[in-house]
Write a structure and sequence with these properties.
This protein has about 160 residues and is mainly α. The protein has one domain: Arp2/3 complex 21 kDa subunit ARPC3 (Orthogonal Bundle). It is about 70% helix and about 0% strand. Helix 1 runs parallel beside helix 2, helix 3 runs antiparallel to helix 4 and helix 4 runs antiparallel to helix 5. It is globular, with a radius of gyration of 15 Å.
Length: about 160
């Protein structure tokens, strides 16, 4: 029982750390924030398929990433909640592998545009922001995420390293 708790905490911490690192890499290329976002870290949102520890790991990783990349407080709160909602629902649909990235894509596509419009007051409409954020999520969470899921599953890499 004690080993399971340690494993859960270790997996969650590793996922959070990877999320932060990948966000910093995307941020270095100007892709992590603003209207068009392709966070490489969003590929990790498929990890609830493998472990429930990914839920707090992704949430904490997103909070830390948003703080460390200089996001505004309401963005830290609502952007991170979008990731939490996506992670919880991804875990809920894990029996249907192809649906795993969909909850995070949807939650971010719905929530983040309002942050961009009302917190940052970027020029543009909510539908435009939904399009740009949605496309970024499809690229990072959908395409890159599913590639990651298949690699981890095919080579059993997730179990080997965690």
């Amino acid at each position: 029982m004690k080993n399971q708790k340690v494993l859960f905490l270790t997996q969650g911490a590793m996922i959070a750390a990877l999320y932060v690192i990948l966000t910093f890499i995307a941020n270095a290329f100007g892709l992590a924030n603003y209207v068009i976002q392709v966070r490489f870290s969003e590929a990790l949102t498929i990890l609830p398929f493998f472990t429930p520890a990914a839920i707090p790991g992704l949430f904490v990783g997103c909070i830390l990433s948003n703080i460390l990349t200089g996001c505004m407080p309401l963005d830290i709160i609502f952007g991170s909640l979008a990731t939490l909602i996506g992670a919880v629902l991804a875990y809920a649909v894990r029996k249907y592998k192809w649906l795993v990235p969909v909850p995070n894509i949807i939650s971010n596509t719905i929530i983040v545009p309002f942050v961009l419009a009302y917190v940052y007051q970027f020029e543009g409409s909510i539908p435009y922001f939904m399009l740009t954020v949605g496309l970024g999520e499809i690229i990072s969470g959908g395409i890159l995420g599913m590639i990651l899921l298949h690699i981890l599953e095919k080579y059993n890499l997730f179990k080997m390293h965690f």
